[in-house]
Amino acid sequence: MTTHPYDALMDITARPKAVFVRGAGSYLWDEGRKRYLDFVQGWAVNCLGHSPPAVADALASQAKRLLTPSPAFYNEPSLKLAEALVAASAFDQVFFANSGAEANEGAIKLARKYGSLHKGGAFEIISFEGGFHGRTLATMSASGKKAFEPLFEPKVAGFKKAKLNDIASVEKLINDNTVAVMLEPIQGESGVWPATDAFLQQLRTLTEAHGLLLIFDEIQTGMSRTGKLFHYEHTGISPDIMTLGKGIGGGVPLAALLATERASCFEHGDQGGTFNGNPIMCAAGLAVLEEVGKPDFLKQVAETGRLLESELQKVSARHGLGGVRGRGLLLALDLKLPIAPGIVAQAFDAGVLLNAPQVDTLRFMPALNVTKAEIAEMIDCLDGILTKAGAARRVA
């Protein structure tokens, strides 16, 4: 095994010492050749698993043709991907970015531009307690994550926080300065807390009644994660603006801001980015969209999601845990006890990668093409850890 100078990287998060060198499908290998079953997948980034051939081939092929002509010129993959996203969605125009935070920053800017043009300078955006929209100053300000509150003050002004699934809490925050409502259909970082379909429908009615924009942050729920290509399709309504990230690139940095013709009001010079719409990344996005948009693929995601949910419910029943939340292949298990970090550490040692967004919650974000056998392997590992933990508690 190679000895690496870990201290050359800024220490921004706790990481295990393993250094990963290869990935294929649902598995990763470290430099010691230990294999890990991955149910995190880069936080729902690797929607087709690690190094999927379709994405790898698209990257290699495009790299031989054109890296970037600069965003001052059109390139073929970005035009094709924009056209494909528009054709598959309720939106009319697309702006490509490099990360979900950048796409959400663009959505905030677009809403404020709309307010300056059409609502007398309105700029306030209602977002939600528990929400997470990124780590730029504006997206941290829009987020409802408690840990962000003391950081990097002063924050960007103009964000008011409502309560998820409480339409009255939204309505009472609306005033003459309000331009939009922004939310994740399922709050991922706070522990996979879904907005109900009924609540999202109420939001659409409320925003239309007040002439406000409705913004869906589908960074984590988009690209078939919940069994539909986009989560809003479950609800029978559509927002004015939607952001995509994570899964859209299948493992490479790609994100998108989509908007209806009514909401698309950027003028020349308002928005840009050196690498935005890069042909290599957009070629990867085209390969991903072609795979995850197939009806049979979507059906498979829904079926596999139901299987994973059922198996987690069985684990919960066996060990006296809480409920299972989420949709499709974005699920959480409520442990009812602050034992999630310990379970994640034990699972890592056993060669299974899990995620604990909260100390009492496990989050599951496997590849969308995860197999039944791989689900069974993860469940067996989790079940074993919980059995040992229960025995230890009984002895204590």
Q: What is the residue-averaged pLDDT?
A: 96
| Helix coverage percent | 25-40%
The biggest sheet amounts to:
7 strands, mixed
> What is CATH's topology name of the largest domain?
Aspartate Aminotransferase, domain 2
The top-level CATH class of the largest domain is Alpha Beta
SSE run: EEEHHHEHEHEHEEEHEEEHHEEHEEEH
Number of domains: 2
CATH superfamily of the largest domain: Type I PLP-dependent aspartate aminotransferase-like (Major domain)
User: How large, in whole angstroms, is the Cα Rg?
Assistant: 21 Å
Taken from the alpha-carbon principal axes, the silhouette is globular
Number of strands: 17
CATH architecture of the largest domain: 3-Layer(aba) Sandwich
Looking across the biggest beta sheet, what order are the strands in? Answer: 4-12-11-10-7-5-6
Low-confidence stretches: none
The total count of helices amounts to 11
* % residues in beta strands: 15-25%
Query: What is the straight-line distance between the termini?
Result: 39 Å
Structural class: alpha/beta
EC number: 2.6.1.11
Subunit structure: Homodimer.
Binding site for pyridoxal 5'-phosphate: 100-101, 132, 217-220, 274
Keywords: Amino-acid biosynthesis, Aminotransferase, Arginine biosynthesis, Cytoplasm, Pyridoxal phosphate, Transferase
